Amino acid sequence: MSIFEYNGSALVAMVGKNCFAIASDRRLGVQLQTIATDFQRISKIHDRLFLGLSGLATDAQTLYQRLVFRHKLYQLREERDMKPETFANLVSAILYEKRFGPYFCQPVIAGLGDEDKPFICTMDSIGAKELAKDFVVAGTASESLYGACESMFKQDMEPEDLFETVSQALLSSVDRDCLSGWGGHVYVVTPTEVKERILKGRMD
Amino acid sequence: MSRRYDSRTTIFSPEGRLYQVEYAMEAIGNAGSAIGLLSKDGVVLVGEKKVTSKLLQTSTSTEKMYKIDDHVACAVAGIMSDANILINTARVQAQRYTFAYQEPMPVEQLVQSLCDTKQGYTQFGGLRPFGVSFLFAGWDKNYGFQLYMSDPSGNYSGWKAAAIGANNQAAQSMLKQDYKDDITREEAVQLALKVLSKTMDSTSLTSEKLELAEVFLTPSGSVKYQVCSPESLSKLLLKFGVTQPATEAS
């Protein structure tokens, strides 16, 4: 049993035309038992930056709280929000600090940078960044997600199209993974608004 | 008045005074003043900007008012560099509390924690005290809106209206006369501007010499700290009729 598979998770972020989408499943389990079906895996750092944390739920919660701490201080001192690229570097540094006793999480970061350019990235549990121009995935369902995204992704999708694509990719991938599922949570972010939607999938 | 005992900050004088702490308060008495007022629906902070020169690079940052956390802000009087250190300390303390308890730090606890830091510099280390006084304005769910004043000794207390910096005694007595327990935020702004205009040394009052900030609850129920823009401040000064040469303090 891998510690990364203890709670179960599925995360995906995709780039569209001047927008991005970040989606997660909603199951929280303790190995084979399902504990919650409304678990929030994606958190807002600021209006244009979202963070999804897959892996061990307790580490995800603590890591998120530490990042909020750092971001709040950054906001107070710099009098502005952190750029997604900067935030990704911060997450990477915090993860590497625990190189020999890591947080068992795999983060997915998605945000709108300068000139509303979408930015997505993921990293492993010790902070190795993986920047992508199209999509990034994480969690127990990641292998299925890679396949689904690769086949369904198209460049420069509009927000509505992007929502459909991300939702289909997520739902079809979690159906093949017993540890993730119980619906989906999708955020589609454009420069003007954030649309949050709940998906109903196979509730198992 | 034995001057032999001044050089060590952590030593009492024979009269039972801590001279370094008193000298720190002297330094603040020469700095730009700040006034805080507690109202039914918010806390108002007004500050006098002492550093005004045409050569100064204009920036959006404030000189007297600082946000400590989403629900607490402070006005400063004294040595700015000392203030920056303490403000940073306060910010980190507030975030550490939120990290541990996942809720905003109660205002009095934040003030107490910062004052404990200040007190340390009057009792050990052989370092001089911080030459700053603060007016803390904030809101928490236990006690609602609060205003606290703290000084270099690490002493603090809650106030309905308080003044720090230059001419603070004159400002304080004016506040004692005119303050009413049930003033609204708008009336508090008016009173603060009036008192400051009367106690400021400068000959004319413009929005460039002042800073105004308010801590209040938005309709959705969250706490907001808002600094007044120079344009709105000029309008307010005109509205309340204080854009005139300052008269002698009453």
TrEMBL record, chain A:
UniProt xrefs under PANTHER family: METALLOPROTEASE TLDD, PROTEASOME SUBUNIT BETA TYPE-3
Xref: CDD domains: proteasome_beta_type_3
Transferase listed as a keyword: no
Name of protein: Proteasome subunit beta
Protein family according to the UniProt entry: Belongs to the peptidase T1B family.
Species in which this protein is naturally found: Hibiscus sabdariffa (roselle)
Function: Component of the proteasome, a multicatalytic proteinase complex which is characterized by its ability to cleave peptides with Arg, Phe, Tyr, Leu, and Glu adjacent to the leaving group at neutral or slightly basic pH. The proteasome has an ATP-dependent proteolytic activity.
UniProt keyword terms in alphabetical order: Cytoplasm, Nucleus, Proteasome
Phylogenetic classification of the source organism: Eukaryota, Viridiplantae, Streptophyta, Embryophyta, Tracheophyta
Automatic annotation (TrEMBL), chain B:
Domain (Proteasome alpha-type subunits): residue spans on this chain: 5-27
SMART domains named in the record: Proteasome_A_N
Pfam families in the record: Proteasome, Proteasome_A_N
Primary location recorded for the protein, binned into one broad class: cytoplasm
UniProt xrefs under InterPro entries: Ntn_hydrolases_N, Proteasome_alpha, Proteasome_alpha-type, Proteasome_asu_N, Proteasome_sua/b
CDD domains in UniProt: proteasome_alpha_type_4
Function: The proteasome is a multicatalytic proteinase complex which is characterized by its ability to cleave peptides with Arg, Phe, Tyr, Leu, and Glu adjacent to the leaving group at neutral or slightly basic pH.
Assembly notes: The 20S proteasome core is composed of 28 subunits that are arranged in four stacked rings, resulting in a barrel-shaped structure. The two end rings are each formed by seven alpha subunits, and the two central rings are each formed by seven beta subunits.
Name of the protein this chain belongs to: Proteasome subunit alpha type
Lineage per the UniProt record: Eukaryota, Viridiplantae, Streptophyta, Embryophyta, Tracheophyta
